């Protein structure tokens, strides 16, 4: 289901977002005049709007925009993906113990400073394409599950959507707070949102197995929880090792907090996976 939805939307996503470094790996594409126009107008409107409100409520216009840019990073960066990246990334997320390569992101000098390569060029880079597609897939599968048990209604589906959004926000809050407490520096918000949203890929697999073979639901849910916990621990540890300065001195505390991140995946999968319960 994830792959089908990905292929369905991939062309539209490429036209609007695959303009960063490495986007030409798929060959030249015809640009969309409407997409370019809306993107340019939208970007200018958002920047001017944020600048106006920032100057009104927070003082300096440029300072406010710099803070917003640092907090949200570059949204376009997180959608610079291709087919190969999505397939390989799903393997890393769903089967992290089979990933034999390194977990370190690839950096390159840009404008006199180091900048990370986009997802299309780095399997370890975070993206928002998979989380959003996995989230949409999860909501669709939740609707099917509700229909199979005779409990489908717009209100029930809306409740599942709300629960999923709240779960994603809580996942972001937990991961962000732990990374901050471990001295990992200013990790961009969209990075944390990407890492947290990957859990919906495992949740979608869990719901699919529940629809196909209900007796395997709890086994698959347990396996997906373990895999997601392992993925987040590997990712968080890489962030800590690359940015923290006192890893050795506080290694015990860090290990306990990373263990908490892994354990937190079990209630997350259990609560969101109970469709129609």
From TrEMBL:
Pfam families attached to this UniProt entry: YIF1
Organism: Rhynchospora pubera
Family listed: Belongs to the YIF1 family.
Subcellular location: Endoplasmic reticulum membrane; Golgi apparatus membrane
Annotated keywords: Endoplasmic reticulum, Golgi apparatus, Membrane, Protein transport, Transmembrane, Transmembrane helix, Transport
Location (main, coarse): endoplasmic reticulum
Entries under PANTHER family matching the protein: YIP1 INTERACTING FACTOR HOMOLOG YIF1 PROTEIN, YIP1D-INTERACTING FACTOR 1, ISOFORM C
GO biological process: endoplasmic reticulum to Golgi vesicle-mediated transport; protein transport
Protein name, as recorded: YIF1b
Topology of the protein relative to the lipid bilayer: Multi-pass membrane protein
InterPro entries reported in the protein's UniProt record: Yif1_fam
Keyword Cytoplasm: no
Sequence intervals crossing the membrane: 128-149, 161-180, 218-236, 256-275
GO cellular component, one term: COPII-coated ER to Golgi transport vesicle
